[in-house]
Design a protein that fits this description.
- It is a single chain.
- The protein has two domains: about 1-55, Homeodomain-like (Arc Repressor Mutant, subunit A); about 55-190, Tetracycline Repressor, domain 2, CATH 1.10.357.
- About 75% of the residues lie in helices and about 0% in strands.
- It has helices at about 1-30, 35-40, 45-50, 55-75, 85-95, 100-110, 120-145, 155-175, 180-190.
- The longest helix is centred in the first third of the chain and has 27 residues, at about 1-30.
- It is elongated and about 60 Å long.
Length: about 200
C-alpha cells in the first residue's frame, strides 16, 4: 500500500513541476527560466527535479504536451466549437499572449528534425494527430459544401498547420507585425472561397 501512496505523491509532484514550468515559461520564456528556478518554486532541489524529468528536453516536451492539452480543453469548452480548424485559428491568436511558449515550441520543433532528438517522437505524433483532426474537419466542410470537393483534405490540413507554424516564427521575429489570428482567419476564408 505505501508504494501506491509514494507513486501518487510522485505523480502529484510531477504535475506541480509542470504547472510551475508552464507558468514560468509563459511569463518569462523558457530561455530565461532556469531548471534551478523551476525546482526551487516546486520545492525541490535541481537533482530532485531531475528525478522526475531525466533531461531538460524531457521537461520541455512535457510542458508543450501540457500546453496542448490545456489549449484543447479551453478552446473546445469555452468557445463551444468542436471544429479543429476554428480551434487552430483561435489557438494561434491566443499564442500571441504567450511568446515564451511559442519560442519553446518553435525551438523544440526545429530540433526535433534531428533523428536523434528526444523531441522527435512527440512532434511526429503531434503533427500526425493534428493533421488527421484537421483533415477530418475539412472533409466535413466539403460535405456541407463549405469547401471545394477538389481540395485534398490532407493537403489542406498540412498547409493550415504549416501556415500556423510559419506565422509563429514570423511573429517571433517581428512581434509588432500583422496579427497571426487575423492572417489565419484570412487563409481559412480564402480556402472556403475556392470555386
Amino acid at each position: 500500500m505505501p508504494v501506491r501512496g509514494q507513486y501518487a505523491k510522485g505523480i502529484a509532484k510531477r504535475e506541480e513541476i509542470l504547472d510551475v514550468a508552464l507558468e514560468l515559461f509563459t511569463k518569462k520564456g523558457y530561455d530565461r527560466t532556469s531548471v534551478r528556478e523551476i525546482a526551487r518554486l516546486a520545492g525541490l532541489s535541481q537533482a530532485g527535479l531531475l528525478h522526475h524529468f531525466s533531461t531538460k528536453e524531457e521537461l520541455f516536451i512535457e510542458v508543450l504536451r501540457r500546453r496542448d492539452v490545456r489549449n484543447r480543453e479551453e478552446f473546445r469548452s469555452s468557445h463551444g466549437d468542436p471544429n479543429s480548424i476554428r480551434r487552430l485559428v483561435s489557438i494561434v491568436r491566443h499564442n500571441m499572449t504567450q511568446p515564451g511558449l511559442v519560442r519553446l515550441y518553435v525551438t523544440m520543433s526545429a530540433e526535433s528534425t534531428d533523428v536523434d532528438s528526444t523531441a522527435r517522437s512527440f512532434f511526429v505524433e503531434r503533427y500526425r494527430s493534428l493533421r488527421a483532426e484537421v483533415a477530418k474537419d475539412v472533409r466535413a466542410q466539403q460535405r456541407l459544401g463549405e469547401l471545394s470537393a477538389e481540395l485534398d483534405p490532407d493537403a489542406v490540413a498540412s498547409l493550415l498547420i504549416a501556415a500556423a507554424d510559419g506565422l509563429q516564427i514570423q511573429w517571433l521575429l517581428e512581434s509588432d507585425g500583422p496579427d497571426m489570428g487575423v492572417l489565419m482567419e484570412q487563409l481559412w476564408t480564402a480556402l472556403r472561397h475556392v470555386p
